[in-house]
C-alpha cells in the first residue's frame, strides 16, 4: 500500500514538474519575443543615428541604462551582478549589430570572412592584421572596432571569424585587460605572432616639439613610452581608444599643440609629421599578438605546439604543489607560468600556463583530466603553433 502511495506521489510530482516546465517555456518564449522587439528598436535607432551622423556607441546612455537595470533588478530581488552581465552583453551585441547595419547602409560589400581588430586604420593592430592577413588568411575583411572587448564579443557572438589582440609587450608587460577577456569569454587562441613596434611622436606638419601641450594615445603606447613622456612634465597626457583614433583627431583638429604617439605607417596614412622616432622605453619593443576564434583549432601533429590554460585554485596553496606533481608525472613542459588578477574582483587570482604539448595528444588529455580533479576552475584557452620571436 505504502509503495503504491509513494509511486502515485512520484507520478504526481512528475506532473507538477511538467506543468511548471511548461510555464517556464512560456516565460522564456516571452523573453525571446522581447529580445526580438529590442533588436528591431536597435535597427530603428541605428537608422536615426546614421541619418543624423551620430556616433553608434553612446557610453552615457549605456551607463544610464545599466543604472536603471540595476535599480529594477534590486527591486525584484534578482542577482544584480548576473543581470548586469547579461545586459552588458546585450548592449554590446546591439553596438556590433548597429555597426554591421551601418556597413550595409553605406553600401560597403559585406564579406562573410572578417577579422576584427582595434581600429581605425593605422593602429598597431591594423599593421599586425595586414601582416597576418597577407601570410595566413588572404582576403579577410578587416572589421575595425573601438576596444578589445568589442573584438572579443564580435568573435564570441559569431559576428566575426577571427579577432586579433595584443597580449604582451616587452616594455609594458602583460596586457591584463586582454588576459581577463580570454578568461571570461567563450573564445580560443588559434595562433600567435610577434611584431616589432616602433613608437613615434606625431603632429600636424606646422608643429614642433616645443609647441606640444597635449599628447594622445591608447594606454599601451603611453605605458611603453613613459620614460620619454617623463622628460616633458608639462604635457597633458590623454588616454584614448587607439593611437590611430588619436591620429584622426589631431589631423582633423589641425592644432599645433596636439601630438599623438603612434606608428610611422599611421603618420603616412593621416599626413602627419614624425617629430621623434623610436621613443619606446626599450629599443627592441616587441608585441606578442594572438589570433582568436570561436572554435578550438586542431593542428598538424608534426609542428611544435603550445597549449594555453587558465586555472583557478581555492585558497589552499598545497593545491599548487599537487598540480606540479601532476605536471611531473605526465612530463609536461611548462613554457610560461603567471598569476593574473581578476580586474573585477582584485582579490581573486588566476594561474595562466603555457605548456609545450599538443592538447589532443593522449598524454595531455590524461594530464588535464587529473588536473580537473583538484582545481576550482580550468579553461583551455587554445592550442597553436609555437612562433618564436
Ligand atoms: O540608445 C542607443 O543609442 C542605442 O543604440 C541602444 C543601445 C542599447 O543596446 O541599449 C546600444 C548602443 C548604445 O551605446 C547605447 C544603447
List keywords for this structure.
alpha/beta; D-Maltodextrin-Binding Protein, domain 2; 389 residues; 12 helices; five-stranded mixed beta sheet; Chorismate Mutase Domain, subunit A; six-stranded mixed beta sheet; binds prephenic acid
Task: Give a verbal description of the structure.
With 389 residues, the protein is an alpha/beta fold. It folds into four domains: 2-105, Chorismate Mutase Domain, subunit A (Up-down Bundle), CATH 1.20.59.10; 114-196, D-Maltodextrin-Binding Protein, domain 2, CATH 3.40.190; 203-279, D-Maltodextrin-Binding Protein, domain 2 (3-Layer(aba) Sandwich); 299-385, ACT domain (Alpha-Beta Plaits), CATH 3.30.70. The chain contains twelve helices and 15 strands. It has helices spanning 2-51, 59-75, 80-105, 124-137, 148-156, 176-184, 219-224, 226-229, 243-253, 264-270, 318-329, 362-374, and strands at 114-118, 141-145, 162-169, 173-174, 188-196, 200-203, 214-217, 236-239, 258-262, 273-276, 286-293, 305-312, 334-341, 349-355, 377-385. Strands 1, 2, 3, 4, 5 and 11 form a six-stranded mixed beta sheet that branches. It has a five-stranded mixed beta sheet with strand order 8-7-9-6-10. A hairpin with a 7-residue loop joins strand 13 (334-341) and strand 14 (349-355). The longest helix is centred in the first third of the chain and has 50 residues, at 2-51. The protein is globular, with a radius of gyration of 25 Å. The model has no long low-confidence stretch (mean pLDDT 90). Bound molecules: prephenic acid. Prephenic acid binds at residues 42, 45, 57-58, 61-62, 65, 91, 94-95, 98.
Amino acid at each position: 500500500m505504502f509503495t503504491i502511495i509513494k509511486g502515485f506521489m512520484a507520478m504526481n510530482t512528475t506532473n507538477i514538474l511538467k506543468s511548471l516546465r511548461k510555464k517556464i517555456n512560456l516565460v522564456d518564449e516571452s523573453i525571446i519575443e522581447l529580445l526580438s522587439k529590442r533588436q528591431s528598436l536597435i535597427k530603428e535607432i541605428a537608422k536615426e543615428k546614421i541619418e543624423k551622423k551620430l556616433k553608434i556607441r553612446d557610453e552615457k546612455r549605456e551607463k544610464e541604462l545599466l543604472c536603471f537595470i540595476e535599480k529594477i533588478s534590486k527591486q525584484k530581488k534578482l542577482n544584480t551582478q548576473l543581470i548586469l552581465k547579461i545586459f552588458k552583453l546585450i548592449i554590446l551585441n546591439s553596438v556590433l549589430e548597429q555597426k554591421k547595419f551601418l556597413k550595409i547602409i553605406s553600401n560597403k560589400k559585406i564579406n562573410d570572412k572578417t577579422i576584427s581588430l582595434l581600429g581605425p586604420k593605422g593602429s598597431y593592430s591594423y599593421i599586425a592584421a595586414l601582416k597576418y592577413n597577407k601570410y595566413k588568411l588572404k582576403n579577410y575583411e578587416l572589421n575595425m572596432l573601438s576596444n578589445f572587448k568589442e573584438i572579443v564579443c564580435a568573435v564570441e557572438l559569431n559576428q566575426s571569424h577571427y579577432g586579433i589582440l595584443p597580449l604582451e609587450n616587452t616594455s609594458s608587460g602583460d596586457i591584463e585587460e586582454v588576459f581577463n577577456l580570454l578568461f571570461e569569454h567563450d573564445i580560443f587562441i588559434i595562433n600567435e605572432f610577434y611584431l616589432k613596434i616602433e613608437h613615434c611622436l606625431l603632429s600636424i606638419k606646422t608643429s614642433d616639439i616645443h609647441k606640444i601641450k597635449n599628447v594622445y594615445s591608447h594606454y599601451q603606447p603611453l605605458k611603453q613610452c613613459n620614460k620619454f613622456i617623463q622628460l616633458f612634465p608639462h604635457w597633458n597626457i590623454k588616454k584614448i581608444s587607439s593611437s590611430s583614433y588619436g591620429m584622426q583627431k589631431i589631423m582633423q583638429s589641425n592644432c599645433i599643440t596636439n601630438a599623438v604617439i603612434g606608428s610611422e605607417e599611421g603618420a603616412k596614412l593621416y599626413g602627419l609629421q614624425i617629430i621623434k622616432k623610436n621613443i619606446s622605453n626599450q629599443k627592441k619593443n616587441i608585441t606578442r599578438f594572438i589570433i582568436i576564434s570561436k572554435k578550438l583549432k586542431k593542428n598538424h601533429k608534426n609542428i611544435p605546439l603550445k597549449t594555453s590554460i587558465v586555472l583557478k585554485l581555492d585558497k589552499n596553496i598545497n593545491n599548487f604543489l599537487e598540480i606540479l606533481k601532476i605536471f611531473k608525472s605526465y612530463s609536461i613542459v611548462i613554457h610560461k607560468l603567471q598569476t593574473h588578477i581578476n580586474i573585477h574582483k582584485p582579490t581573486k587570482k588566476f594561474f595562466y600556463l603555457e605548456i609545450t604539448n599538443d592538447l589532443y595528444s593522449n598524454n595531455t588529455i590524461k594530464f588535464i583530466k587529473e588536473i580537473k580533479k583538484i582545481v576550482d576552475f580550468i579553461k583551455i584557452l587554445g592550442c597553436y603553433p609555437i612562433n618564436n620571436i
